[in-house]
Design goal:
This protein is mostly beta strands. It has 2 helices and 25 strands. Strands 1-8-7-6-5 form a 5-stranded antiparallel β-sheet, with no helix packed on it. It has a 4-stranded antiparallel β-sheet with strand order 2-25-24-23, with no helix packed on it. A 4-stranded antiparallel β-sheet has the order 9-10-11-12, with no helix packed on it. The chain is globular and about 55 Å long.
Length: 415
């Protein structure tokens, strides 16, 4: 057994933030020909320039919640990337959403467990609290809380009689904290919006999206699903004024143009969808999204990726998507702000070369730290992904990157 506070040695996590005067200047160093303002006016998918690595830390794949329950009994014989299940405890893994607590720590959401409904019934859905230490280069796992339904808000059967939620009940892939301190999570099995207390207790019944049902939806009753498996709410934006949520589907809804994904506006006051929608258009219909956050009332950051890992990883990017659709093509205007396969690393952070790559199958966390700094985390799909080193289970990596231009974000987006 391990102690509750897990200290993980990692290579130095050094975050160098520029002064405001430097942070807001144009990106002349990268030979940028088109400014952000020009790109927005034209509705073009242009680029900021090369982002720079400013921090790196790594949480080992085999990190577990101390004194927790056994897990992984249904993952198969293995070994998987040198790791054999089942496990005596619950793994601290699969970060599919992150919230900045503004005290040096982050709430990070583990997804449904081991990849699907059938093999994740003994994986307890959980929000972990982690703290990367920029001085020592260590990461502390400070604790966290399991998700549960003690007030019986879920109207369909759950896996456990004690109503602790598992990866067979929901596939939670996105998390935001409302201004009242409660959490809203996006699920893929419904897809549903899930509202939790600050300690992880479900506060109201799962909220569906009309016309959208995944194959795992408990209300299908023989009907055909309208989107694919694992294609529900992958990202979710909290508006800067705190009034609305914008959950983003990972898959195209039947009848829509392939590669067109839907942001749907949800009103937190009325507890209903408003009917307003925005279309995020993938660069390729075979791509997927990983996360989304607000920059201001009109602009969202979106992770878009291919399904490759390691040497097969080609497309791992962060776009600035603008709801105003200035070119009138029916989709959000896109500006490339960071190519995660081509990050400058002049200081050789993490022991890597001058060019740093983030070659993971799933990259599912982006946090806005200031106008030019983002934190980005991967989902390591424990123990199945091996994007960093072939044959070795991926760690949960935490990086910070400095953008080549300022986002000029609404200050409320940093809250």
């Amino acid at each position: 057994m391990k102690r509750l506070s897990i200290m993980v040695s990692a290579v130095a996590l050094t975050v160098g933030l520029a002064s405001p005067a430097v942070a807001d200047r144009d990106s002349k160093d990268f030979g940028q020909a088109t400014t952000l303002g020009q790109a927005t006016a034209l509705g073009q998918a242009t680029a900021f320039g090369q982002a720079k690595l400013t921090g790196f830390a790594s949480l080992p794949a085999e990190t577990f919640v101390p004194n927790s329950e056994p897990s992984g009994s249904a993952i198969g014989a293995g070994p998987f990337n040198g790791i054999t299940g089942p496990f005596a405890d619950q793994p601290v893994q699969g970060f599919s959403g992150a919230v900045n607590r503004h005290d040096g720590s982050y709430d990070v959401l583990s997804d449904n467990g081991y990849g699907n409904q059938a093999n994740s019934a003994d994986f307890l859905l959980r929000v972990h609290r982690v703290e990367p230490d920029t001085k020592t280069g260590r990461v502390k796992v400070l604790g966290g809380f399991n998700l549960s339904d003690p007030h019986r808000k879920v109207p369909f059967p759950l896996t456990r009689a004690d109503r602790v939620l598992t990866g067979a009940d929901f596939d939670v892939e996105s998390i935001v904290r409302a201004y009242d301190g409660t959490y809203w999570l996006g699920d893929e099995f419904g897809p549903f919006l899930l509202h939790f207390s600050p300690t992880g207790k479900l506060l109201e019944a799962p909220i569906p999206l009309d016309g959208v049902r995944a194959p795992e939806n408990p209300y299908l009753d023989g009907a055909q699903p309208t989107t694919g498996s694992s294609k529900g709410f992958e990202g979710m934006v909290r508006s800067v004024d705190g009034r609305h949520l914008y959950p983003l589907l990972e898959g195209t809804v039947n009848g829509d143009t392939p590669g067109d994904l839907c942001f749907s506006e949800f009103d937190l006051k009325s507890r209903d969808y408003t009917g307003k929608r925005f279309t995020y258009r993938l660069e390729s219909p075979s791509n997927a999204i990983g996360d989304a956050i607000a920059v201001d009332r009109n602009r969202f950051l979106v992770i878009e990726r291919d399904g490759g890992q390691g040497a097969d990883a080609r497309f791992k990017r962060i776009y600035l998507a603008d709801t105003r659709d200035r070119n009138g093509d029916g989709a959000m205007d896109k500006t490339l702000v960071a190519d995660l396969m081509n990050i400058a690393n002049p200081k050789g952070l993490g022991g890597f070369g001058e060019t740093f790559t983030f070659p993971f199958t799933t990259i599912e966390d982006v946090v806005l730290l200031d106008n030019r700094t983002l934190a980005v985390l991967n989902d390591n799909n424990f123990p199945f992904s091996s994007g960093r080193t072939p044959g070795k289970a991926d760690n949960n990596e935490f990086i910070t990157i400095r953008l080549a231009q300022s986002l000029k974000a609404d200050k409320r987006a940093l809250r």
